[in-house]
Amino acid sequence: MNLERIPTVHPTEDEFKDIINYISESRIRRLGNKYGMIKIVPPINFKPPLSLDFSKFKFKVRKQQLNQLNLINRARLFFIKQINNYLKVNQKDSNFFCKKKYFLIDINKEKKIKLFLYDIYISIIKYYNQNITWEMLLILVRDSYNNALLIPSIKNVEKNNKLWKILSKQFNNIPISTLKYYFNKYIKDYYSYIHLQYQQNLPSLHYNDEYPKSLLSDNEESEEQDEDDSDSEQGNAEECALCYEYDHIEDLITCNSCKKYFHIGCINEAKGEKHIETAIPPSNLQNWVCRHCIMGNGYYGFHMSNQDYSLANFLEVTNSKRSFDNDNETLTRLEKEFWQYVNNIDKSKIVKYGADIHNTVSGTISGFPTSNYIPPNQKDNLKEYMTYATHPANLVNLPNSKGSLLPLFKDTISGMTIPWVYVGSEFSTFCWHMEDQYTLSANYQHEGAPKVWYSIPDSSCTKFQDYLVSSTPDLFLRQPDLMHQLTSLVSPEVLTKNGITCYKAIQNPNEYIITFPKCYHAGFNSGYNLNEAVNFTSEFWLPYGMSAINDYKVSKKQCVFEMFDLLITILENYLQGKHADIFSESLVRSSYNFLLSTFNEINKDLSRINDTRNFLPSFIDRAGLRSRTKLLENSIKSRMRVIKKNDNDENEEAQLYCTHCKTICSFAFMVHRKKGSSTMKPRKKLSADNSKNWMDFVTYVYDKRPTTDFDILCLHDYLTLVVNEKTQMFSHNSDDELYILKDMSYIDNLLNNSGDKIDRL
């Protein structure tokens, strides 16, 4: 693929020992900003020995079906499955199903084209939702709390002659009569069903799916039957997906697609509340399919093996070789073959990838030398070995090396501050994604065949995201964080044709690939290789980390860092004169400005809430949260991320996430009982500092009705969702409560003192 290569840089030994500051130099940052990635070739004498204990190194593999990773292919396959699920329930003729992926249409004697049903459907949707962008769609999803696309009635579609003329031209001048034939036969009834759901102003999916199942799970094709195959983890057996109860088993029915259980009574109750489920004909219970599986949940995940592989097993099973003839002709051929497999909806190719391996036993955590494991063949070379074990470019050390902000966080997060190992085979792939919270990443190749990378720099991200949404808006409606799931590919050839800047890199052993903030990257392995990756930060990352907070709110992805704790720590250290050698003036000023701006917004929200109703806030101290982490972990699984300080530390810190936007509730949150909720028992008002009673209350509610009766909301979403925009009056319940998580007067003093000191600089 004829793409411009990313630049390769060659630091000196001294520069390499101060690697984060080297990467932060303006000349290197300019390259990183332009290309999204750079390749670093270490000094010639830097050759760390591979230090894995292969007798203990075990890992599970993910199975990747390449043609389903193509975003358009997957959307087309999803749509066929959704139509067939609809037909199972609503078609009198049970033998009438759409069994073809596409239809071959004669244009003339010499030309035939493939006509996909999804392409007709989505072209109609796009006609009525023209120029929709990534930002528009996600904001609509965030603010509307329901469907965001315009779905006109079937009459409007059928009578719109302009629409059909445009479609005919779009599909290589297929006659309008032909297009209408396939629309009427296969799509019309299903389209009417979709329109009805939107007319009812329903949410896309009205129950939380803790263990989602892909609609394509039943269609998995395998070149060989592996004993280690396992489906995605499912929820508890015989637990109703709507009420989460196990009783009244005789009233349960099973969805024919996802195999989840539902009480018929719960479905009827949902109908009464306008949450229309699929009708349940008494004579057709065996073919009944839930609304999730008809509307489509958009979920797609990799099948994981049950078997633990050793490296020798993996090489044998994948027919991989440790050697590779690294010539351009071979690599060009493999690259072409890889994208053919990805783009061809008819031909399945399944590959195995040992990805995201995060072992905890010494000798299996990292391929770099460490003081915890010394290979037998290195004991006579201990001095040089320990030099590598302590080197700043060792990925075990990099997150905490000089210039990094990660040591200022209280937590360690595997895969962010602890390296993950990757064992590749031919055509195993990593799909388009950005790093969590827009951090930088370093990927080092220990041995094996080249790894091919593609990058889309920050400057083209918006155009790339707009292209994705314009291609499959229905998928992003159901999965707004789709591009954080590492399951979707679009070929660089397609991207460049659509004006999206894309670059390429070839990584060989003993080379680093550094990704810069907000760089989309993807790629594949040309054969067996062993890589390792970790995230890190620097001063210039801070604005990106802050911008991720708002970006994640609209895509409803959880942050992994509590950024405001970082800002507070920086200012505290600054006032105490600590870390003066790493805190630049610009970092302190940025931290001050970010914290001040957010603090003022929070105070405005608190004032607005209390202007309407005088809430008496309860204060939850951090020690109280830590002491009850196990209780929280069991009771609010979907709203909290537990981050361990280290493997041996029993003290864990819990983050509370907003039910709606998934943001971390950093300063305060509201407990809001939904309107019409009646299943909660009356409860006492909680004393201001009694975190134990608050935890017990949360446990009761989440265990009984985890998503039905109340929400934990950040202040912004509480004001957005609970306040009537026209009257500016609250539709709150009298049981709504306000909780404060940080000492606001302390932060106010911190800002005042920091501001005074900054002004004197």
UniProtKB/TrEMBL annotation:
InterPro entries: JmjC_dom (IPR003347), JmjN (IPR003349), Zinc_finger_PHD-type_CS (IPR019786), Znf_FYVE_PHD (IPR011011), Znf_PHD (IPR001965), Znf_PHD-finger (IPR019787). Residues 387-553 form the JmjC domain. GO terms for biological process: methylation; regulation of DNA-templated transcription. The keyword Ligase does not apply. Pfam families: JmjC, JmjN, PHD. One of its GO terms (molecular function) is zinc ion binding. Keywords: Iron, Metal-binding, Methyltransferase, Nucleus, Transferase, Zinc, Zinc-finger. PROSITE patterns: JMJC, JMJN, ZF_PHD_1, ZF_PHD_2. It is found in: Nucleus. GO terms for cellular component: chromatin; nucleus. Residues 237-296 form the PHD-type domain. Residues 6-49 form the JmjN domain. SUPFAM superfamilies: Clavaminate synthase-like, FYVE/PHD zinc finger. Signal peptide: none annotated. CDD domains: PHD_SF. The keyword S-adenosyl-L-methionine does not apply. Its main location: nucleus. This is Similar to Saccharomyces cerevisiae YJR119C JHD2 JmjC domain family histone demethylase specific for H3-K4 (Histone H3 Lys4). It comes from Maudiozyma saulgeensis.
